[in-house]
Each structure stands twice: as structure tokens, then as C-alpha cells.
């Protein structure tokens, strides 16, 4: 498979690119993160994929002290993270999805990597492998200093990474030592093949608009060039977007999101599409964002993982899914501005480890776990949910 390179930010990348997986299979090189250049048989590779990239149960994680990716690392507190990883372990989770921060790396690269090292080590100690998302593209929110650091719940939301100004100017993707591609290269060389990592996700919900599509392709190529055996994926909102970014077979795992299906019947129908996609592509498929049904009682703006947990588990059983990540581990108002303005709340645990809802905790639990000392349901200290639609 040969492709002409048309992405302006990849001047160092070869103008003719042979499909990576095709090349690696022909060479007998393993393709999982942490395996490196070990030569294995096809049977051994298939076994590694089935055990390493399937049966994944996870959650999206922002520490209780953070409102966005920048704050996750700029305000990083070892004791908070360790306590909250214990909460993830109590649910029997074997994975988390966490967002890196290009902006925090630009500000203080050694600090970012030191905190990432602590995070990966503490995850490994609990049998948890994280997906780390390199870049983010929410509908609103530039990474200004105010937007990155705001802690007032009425002002603190997810932000772009990198900024739209950078995305719109391809010369800024790679032309200086703190460029996004430089960050991607550092990540690839330092962590992308680390055995403690489940996968590297290039960007969350990049869509398919130009020039972000070109930017994401360039980042994907950069990581792959410097970490040929890494496990790479893309935060695709729908199945179709995987085809946009996997044109050269560079993605090891496909993704989709299933936020707020109307009811379990609608979720089942969507998961049938997931099964068809998985069978068509032959690649592991993860649902990396799900919350609840839109119409489930008692209040459709509060957490209700019970409304979808059985549906998700059934999708694992019938091999429609290889992994799922609910949003999110810690109880918070919605990550994005619009759903938060309507009163949307997500999450399982209060900062002290008490579950917001006992039924949700039970529905999400998988395997051995410990129980919190208190089962009292707390009231949520934010404005009451509205009655308007999402």
C-alpha cells in the first residue's frame, strides 16, 4: 500500500509510505505497545491482540481537583491520584482514559513527564493500563491562560489542544522545538511503547474537517515513525471517522462514542452497527465514551449508568465490543459548556470515595473489589438540573 504524502506538517516523512501493518506482518514484528521489535509468529500475534486489547473495562478520568487536561497535570497531586486510582480498582476496572496536555508540556516539560511517570507507575501497581489522549478538540474553548486555569464551575471546561490558531497554520505544527509534532515525537520516544500503557490516542473527536484532519494525520505519522510497535487509536465519535484516519492501516484499535442514546433499544441498535464494523475491519473496537440513556428515570440529567451497564456487558459477551470506558470516574458537572449549562452531571465517586449512587456502583463493578466504608448518597453541590433537552 503506497500513499503520496500531502500533509504539509510532515516534511520529514517519506513521500511514499508502505502500510505499516502490512510491512510488520511481512517482517514478523509484533505490533503491540511494550512488545518492541520482538519477532513472533502470526498465531502468537493474534493471541497477544486478543488478550491485550480485548475485555477492557475502563472509565474516563479527570482527577477531582481538575476540570480539564491542563489542570490534570498542572495541579497534579500524588495523594489525590493514588486515592482515586484505588476507587477505579474498587470497580474492577483494568483501564482508564486520561488526557495529556500539550500546553502543560510547553510550560514545563520535565514536570509533565515526571507526573506522567507517577501516574503510569501507580496505574500499573493496581493492574490498570491507561489510554493517553495526546490532543483534544472540544466544540468550544481556546487554551488561553484563563480557560486553562479557571476553577469556578461556571467557567471551567474542556479546552482545545492545540489552539485553533495553531491548527489553522500548518507551519506551526512542526517548525519549533515546542511544536505539537515535537511533543508527539517526545511522547513516542518516551512512552508510546511502554508496557504500562494500553494505547496512545492521537486526538479526541477530531472529526474530518480541514485542516484538523491533516494535522491529525501528521501527528499519527510522527508517532508511528518514532514508535513503530506502539498501539495507536483515534477518539472517533462515530464508526465512519475510523476510515478517515485508518487509510494506511495505521490504527491498531478503532473507537466510537455512544453518549446519551435515547433508550436501551436505541443503544442495542447502535451496538449492532458496532458488531458489523468490527466484523468488517477485523480490528478491536472500543466504545471510549458512554454515560446513560437520555430518557431513563429518575432524573435524566443525573448519573444513571444502570440504564446502560447491562447493554454494554452484553455487547462484550456477543463480541460487538472489545472495550468500554464510561464517562467518568469522578463525580462532576459535564465536561463541556453546553451540557453543563443544562445541568448535566456525570461520574461515580465523590472525592472521599463514596459512590453517588449505590446501584450505579454495583452495575459497573466487575470482578474483585472493596466496598467504601459509607454508602450514604450525597447531595450534589451544583445547580439543579434543568428540564431542557440536550
- The total number of structural domains is 1
Tell me, rounded to a whole number, the average pLDDT. 84
Q: What name does CATH use for the topology?
A: TIM Barrel
| Count of alpha and pi helical runs | 15
> Rough shape?
globular
**Rg, nearest Å:** 20 Å
Q: Number of DSSP strands?
A: 10
Sequence of secondary-structure elements: HHEHHEHHEHHHEHEHEHEHEEHEH
- CATH superfamily placement: Glycosidases
Q: Order of strands across the biggest sheet? A: 5-4-3-2-1-8-7-6
How much strand content do the residues show?
Answer: 5-15%
Please outline the major beta sheet: 8 strands, parallel
Helical/strand content category: alpha/beta
Could you name the CATH class? Alpha Beta
Which percent range fits the helix content?
A: 25-40%
Characterize this entry briefly.
The protein is α/β, with parallel strands linked by helices. It has 15 helices and ten strands. The chain has helices at 20-27, 42-52, 69-74, 78-90, 102-107, 109-125, 145-149, 164-167, 180-190, 212-226, 239-245, 264-281, 306-317, 337-341, 358-364; strands at 56-60, 95-99, 129-136, 199-204, 232-235, 254-258, 285-290, 323-327, 332-333, 345-346.
Would you kindly provide a written description of the structure presented here, covering whatever features stand out?
This is Cellulase family glycosylhydrolase. InterPro entries: GH (IPR017853), Glyco_hydro_5 (IPR001547), Glycosyl_hydrolase_5 (IPR050386). It comes from Haloferax litoreum. This protein is an alpha/beta fold and 390 residues long. It is built from 15 helices and 10 strands. It has a single domain, classed as Alpha-Beta Barrel (TIM Barrel), CATH 3.20.20.80. The strands form 2 sheets. The protein has an 8-stranded parallel beta sheet. The longest helix is centred in the last third of the chain and has 18 residues. The protein is globular. The N terminus and C terminus are likely disordered.
